[in-house]
């Protein structure tokens, strides 16, 4: 990654449900990417927030007996709290009910209307409330159900305002053809291109208030509110200073961040992000985002984990029972980015025990305990190192580059896999050189110094590389290794800054305990 600004976003989560593992995954992923970018010295803005209008929310608030505003305030707060509890640090928490958002949506609509991109007509189509969009005839399964929500189509016919999406179709097709990295993994770029292979229908962007009151009123017709997706997508611009006026005439707009904007989304919202959003942007005179990064679903068995199917895992409960970092590590390590992945408690416990408790945790505690006992917690000398010791350190020194290479290709799970392999390599080295046996023989003091010192230097590299995925663990480990405590993550450029011989190390850390499934559910 180059040394420049970077803008990372999650989708805005619907407030009809409390945060679940699916939401937590994307937010954790973006936090991880933010950490990594910061470790490269980049200036990053991480935006998340809540999507608070539309039929789904109106229905949920009605059921709860609360006003939509009360209801959305309450649920939106649960998202904010959840991210805090999981240790995630968004820079912007955006709500689509904030007053500036109303303004920018209205101004944008008015500009498009004035430009002739919005017209009024009567339309009939098959609507899915779960998706909050009309689906084309091909987008229903063989039983006529929405594949994501397993609900039948609602046939809707009404007069509405429409955005002339098709007007920008060729420009968008050209954009995708010329920017092969604009959607990753690449199968989703192909999917987006397939969506553009047929003429695009105009996009219905209003709802009559007889049917839906909970939305942003159209600036040019009081009888209608704005379609929820048209409203919500604009958050991505609003989060960095867009006001609804022309971008070039908006001094507060952080264009350098938009130039490097990366939207992380789930595969179910590809069409809205890869077709609706960029055509809206082109109409508003703004470039499409630099990149869409698309994740698959966390499944329970064969089904998508979702509120409507009632099979969700509560991330707060996981945090309270097992801690935030093991959970974060598992989600990022076990989901091959872009593909679906099955959540099981067994695989979570197994991964955490194998690579955290028995992996980096045990490596740090056993080697640093031996340094404490044999060298009074002082960094051993490097003078007696032999070829085998140099070979280990040389190999571990290759880890940062290997990690970055996978990371840049959005193969996050592979990047973390490289880290786990490096830990395993250090473990093999220790098992081969048996420092606990060397410690018993005074003639082997030189070898003992060499072996423990080599592991300590390796750990200092590991502590930098692991910081994006395991920030707390990295911090503890670095203090144990004798580095100054800091809230800032270590920079990748600090790899190779080893602790001076004879310098005092910190307390031996207890990083990750072994986890066990509770007896009851
Ligand atoms: N409000 C819209 C997004 C508007 S963005 C301008 C929305 N919200 S959502 O709450 O339904 O979903 C938000 C994100 O969570 C989506 O990216 C969706 O893919 C993701 N997930 C929801 N369940 C999921 C899984 N089971 N697994 C992985 N991600 C999933 O869509």
What does this protein look like?
This protein has 19 helices and 17 strands. The chain is α/β, with parallel strands linked by helices and 521 residues long. The strands form four sheets. Strands 1, 2, 3, 4, 8, 13 and 14 form a seven-stranded parallel beta sheet that branches. Strands 6-5-7-9 form a four-stranded antiparallel beta sheet. α13 (345-375) crosses α18 (445-465) and α18 (445-465) packs antiparallel against α19. The radius of gyration is 26 Å and the shape is elongated. It starts with a strand and ends in a 41-residue tail after the last helix. The structure holds 5'-O-[(L-methionyl)-sulphamoyl]adenosine.
Detail the topology: elements first, then pairings.
Blueprint: E1 5-9, E2 13-14, H1 21-39, E3 43-51, H2 55-64, H3 68-85, E4 92-95, H4 99-114, E5 118-128, E6 133-135, E7 154-163, H5 169-178, E8 183-184, H6 186-195, E9 203-204, E10 206-208, E11 217-218, E12 221-226, H7 228-233, H8 235-238, H9 255-258, E13 261-266, H10 270-284, E14 291-295, E15 298-300, E16 303-304, H11 315-322, H12 324-334, E17 341-342, H13 345-375, H14 387-397, H15 399-408, H16 412-433, H17 435-438, H18 445-465, H19 471-480
Parallel strand pairs: 1-3, 1-13, 2-3, 3-4, 8-14, 13-14, 15-17
Antiparallel strand pairs: 5-6, 5-7, 7-9, 10-12, 11-12, 15-16
This protein binds 5'-O-[(L-methionyl)-sulphamoyl]adenosine.
């Amino acid at each position: 990654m180059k040394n420049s600004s970077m803008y990372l976003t999650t989708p805005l989560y619907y407030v009809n449900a409390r945060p679940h593992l699916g939401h937590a995954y994307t937010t954790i992923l973006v936090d991880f990417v933010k950490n990594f970018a910061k470790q490269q010295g980049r200036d990053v803005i991480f935006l998340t927030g809540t999507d608070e209008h539309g039929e789904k929310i109106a229905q949920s608030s009605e059921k709860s007996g609360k006003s939509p505003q009360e209801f959305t305030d309450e649920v939106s707060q649960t998202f904010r709290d959840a991210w805090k509890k999981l240790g995630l640090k968004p820079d912007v928490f955006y709500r689509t009910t904030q007053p500036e958002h109303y303004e920018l949506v209205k101004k944008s609509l008015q500009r498009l209307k004035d430009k002739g991109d919005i017209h009024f007509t009567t339309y009939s189509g098959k609507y899915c409330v779960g998706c909050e969009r009309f689906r084309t005839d091909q987008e229903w399964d063989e039983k006529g159900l929405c594949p994501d929500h397993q609900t039948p189509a609602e046939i809707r016919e009404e007069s509405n305002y429409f955005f002339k999406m098709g007007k920008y179709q060729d420009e968008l097709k050209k954009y995708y053809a010329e920017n092969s990295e604009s959607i990753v993994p690449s199968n989703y770029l192909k999917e987006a291109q397939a969506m553009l292979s047929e003429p695009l229908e105009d996009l219905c962007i209003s709802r009559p208030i007889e049917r839906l009151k909970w939305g942003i009123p159209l600036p040019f017709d009081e009888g209608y509110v704005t379609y929820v997706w048209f409203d919500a997508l604009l958050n991505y611009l609003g989060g960095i200073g867009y006001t609804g006026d022309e971008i070039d005439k908006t001094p507060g707009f952080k264009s350098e961040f938009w130039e490097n904007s990366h939207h992380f989304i789930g595969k179910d919202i590809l069409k809205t992000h890869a077709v609706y959003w960029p055509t809206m942007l082109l109409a508003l005179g703004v470039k499409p985002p630099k990149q869409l990064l698309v994740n698959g679903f966390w499944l329970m068995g064969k089904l998508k984990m979702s509120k409507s199917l009632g099979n969700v895992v509560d991330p707060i409960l996981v945090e309270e029972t097992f801690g935030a970092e093991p959970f974060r590590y598992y989600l990022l390590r076990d989901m091959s980015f872009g593909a679906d992945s099955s959540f099981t408690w067994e695989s979570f416990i197994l991964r955490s025990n194998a690579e955290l408790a028995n992996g980096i945790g045990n490596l740090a505690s056993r080697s640093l305990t031996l340094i404490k006992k044999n060298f009074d917690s002082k960094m051993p000398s490097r003078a007696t190192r032999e070829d085998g010791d140099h070979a280990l350190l040389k190999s571990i020194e290759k880890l940062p580059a290997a990690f970055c290479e996978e990371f840049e290709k959005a193969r996050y799970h592979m990047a973390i896999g490289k880290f786990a392999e490096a830990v395993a390599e250090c473990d093999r080295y220790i098992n081969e050189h048996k420092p606990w046996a060397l410690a018993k023989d005074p003639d082997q003091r030189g070898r003992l110094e060499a072996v423990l010192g080599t592991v300590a230097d390796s750990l200092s590299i590991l502590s930098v590389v692991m910081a994006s995925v395991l920030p707390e663990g990295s911090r503890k480990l670095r203090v144990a290794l004798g580095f100054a405590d800091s809230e800032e993550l270590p920079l990748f450029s600090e790899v190779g800054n080893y602790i001076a011989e004879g310098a005092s190390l910190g307390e031996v850390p207890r990083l990750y305990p072994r986890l066990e499934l509770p007896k009851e559910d």
